[in-house]
Specification:
alpha/beta, single chain, five-stranded mixed beta sheet, eight-stranded mixed beta sheet
């Protein structure tokens, strides 16, 4: 790790003060972020996927011996009190704590639940930290929520958070006004990701974040991955046999349909690429969120591999089709399925960072 100019003091502080955890060849870690748990009412965004989260934790990750990290904004304190949240989701908290038997359970805090850091009666107070530094051999992966990259938000947080809480609880909530956070603002989202990307390359580390609700794998957005995959298939086409050419043509057609869907959606939200310079460096990963309309995205570290996965019920949406031609794996008879969206070796990731950053 090499830090040069002090361009990112908040992020540099997170790296130096992070809780160190050494990962071994058999380590398994699930990373979830942005649950935004509420009181169970209609304004509780977590309610939509609560049964899915409960099932995937209890029936898949616990038996598979995963440790667990919740990477910020677990509770939605801008809208609800911690007392009501803990009362509503008591069973989920019990489930979180069971992961300590598998190795460890930690929770970082985000901008929506930072006030819990000083709350002694909070059920997860002993497991709460601001950042974690996973050591993979001599390499580092810094896990933090991501709001710290916004200097204005972080330095004005005590004042801003009180104003936001008052507005959301007593104005927006009764009137049904949508919660306009960073997750819904593409310009702010891109600026935060860019800042973290610059810092990660400067320090030659991997950063694992949440906050923006946008899944990222190796600093690439879904659009980037689709474009790269289409390019790979086009290059393979001339040397392919007749049968393989038909398969390539069919797969490119599927990818083009997925790409068109991304651009159609992008017109609504202000589409931006995940690329921040001419050479893509795989230094930023984002677990997405647990409150998606169609399912939950998460990151898995499994020995020497890192994966972006998607959990869903029923039909798989095109937006979350696998870049690795993976097939959905049903979770027993629950009706839920898991699919690997992307996967790579950590050794490859760190080699690219070391050579290109």
């Amino acid at each position: 790790m090499r830090l040069h100019q002090k361009k990112h003091p908040h992020l540099e502080r997170l790296l130096t003060t992070a809780k160190p955890i050494t990962l071994g060849p058999d380590s398994k870690v699930l990373i979830l972020s942005d649950l935004h748990m509420g009181n169970g009412g209609r304004r509780d965004e977590f309610r939509r996927n609560a049964a899915l989260v409960r099932s995937m934790l209890r029936d898949y990750y616990l038996p598979e011996q995963y440790s667990l990290v919740l990477n910020g904004d677990v509770e939605e304190l801008f809208k609800f009190s911690v007392e009501k949240i803990q009362a509503q989701w008591s069973g989920i908290y019990d489930l979180f704590l069971r992961f300590e038997r598998n190795g460890f359970f930690w929770k970082t805090y985000g901008n929506h639940d930072a006030d819990l850091f000083e709350e002694r009666e909070y059920r997860l107070s002993k497991q709460m930290v601001e950042s974690i530094r996973f050591m993979y051999g001599d390499e580092a992966m810094l896990l933090f929520h991501g709001h710290q990259a916004s200097i204005l938000l972080w330095e004005t947080y005590p004042v801003v958070s009180r104003a936001v809480v008052l507005f959301l609880r007593y104005v927006a909530k009764p009137m049904g006004i949508r919660n306009f956070t960073t997750a819904y603002n593409s310009r702010r989202r891109f600026a935060i990701e860019r800042s973290i990307y610059d810092f990660s390359n400067q320090a030659k580390i991997v950063s694992i974040i949440g906050h923006t609700h946008r899944p990222l794998f190796e600093s690439l957005s879904k659009v980037d991955h689709l474009n790269y995959r289409i390019e790979e298939l086009c290059r393979a086409y001339p040397a392919a046999g007749p049968e393989e050419r038909m398969q390539i043509e069919e797969r490119i057609g599927e990818l083009k349909t997925m790409l068109d869907a991304c651009f159609t959606e992008g017109k609504k939200i202000g589409l931006r690429s995940g690329r921040y310079n001419n050479i893509v460096i795989p230094s930023v990963f984002n677990s997405g969120c647990a409150i998606g309309k169609r399912g939950v995205t998460a990151l898995e570290i499994d020995g020497d591999r890192i994966r972006l996965v998607y959990w869903f019920k029923g039909k798989q949406g095109r937006r979350f089709s696998s870049d690795r031609n993976s097939e959905p794996e049903p979770l027993g008879d629950t009706g839920y399925s898991r699919i690997v969206l992307n996967e790579d070796h950590l050794d490859y990731v760190f080699s690219r960072i070391r050579l290109l950053a």
